[in-house]
Amino acid sequence: MTGFPNGQYFFIKSRANGKVLDVYMGETTDDSNIIIWPQKPDDDNDNQLWRAEDGFLINKRSQLVMDIRGGDLKAHNQRFGYRDGYIYCLADPRLVLDIRGGGSKEGTKIILYKRKESDNQNQLWTIIPVGGPNEAHQIPYYPPPDYPQPGHQQQPQSYPAYPSTGYGPPDNHPPSYGGQVAYPSYEEASGAHHQVYNEGRKAHLSHQLIAGAAAYEAVKAYRRHQERQGEEMSHGFIKQGVAALAAAEIVKLAEEHNWSRDQKEKATRDAQQAAEKYASREFQF
């Protein structure tokens, strides 16, 4: 399976020991730890069920999203993807959910750890959908008012709850609408960025320019992240990372500007495509 189920709750079961992700003591407060625990019966398992919205994993009981404490990219470290059994951080796909110490004891904490290609059963998960395909859509979710502050550990946490990130076409075939490139130039995006991130709703700009500003912000955020980490990243990781960051920026801006769902989805596509293009310039590939 690639990607999380759409519109359904699901268990996240460890392939190493058969236990599922759970919230410690069923807590419904911020900073609750995520652990492994035996799957519970139907009438007592809401804290073990999750749904995916825009890459955010939202707990059924608390309606809080899974978050990684201490992530450099703040709100962007709340977004995850699922591929080949790994649940990975969209901001840095090399980091995946792991069971601390590879343990199987009830209550063992979940951590974020570098992906392993072998001896990796404690990093592999099976998604088990439950209920009808649209059940999860009946409950709304809302973006968090503030981002979590960086700490020292990288452990999945619960934090108040925000179309999966994809890849754009090759750089030499930019997307177009009506024969025109769907995103502004790098220079235009830089100017729009100043207005969008300094004037907020007072900045009367087109959706395209706002999407360009979000893409510009994503690329600069990823640059700061790379400089803090002090290591080079592959072009593929950079493109995937900036696309994820751009999508998260659009979530915030769409809420701020009261965009419709269609406007938000189009702006997300534009911002992701622009971010990949701008990254080619910023990181020179």
Automatic annotation (TrEMBL):
Domain of life: Eukaryota
SUPFAM superfamilies in the record: Ricin B-like lectins
UniProt feature, compositional bias: Low complexity: 149-164
Basic and acidic residues bias locations: 259-269
PROSITE patterns: RICIN_B_LECTIN
The protein, known as: Ricin B lectin domain-containing protein
CDD domains linked to this entry: beta-trefoil_Ricin_GllA-1
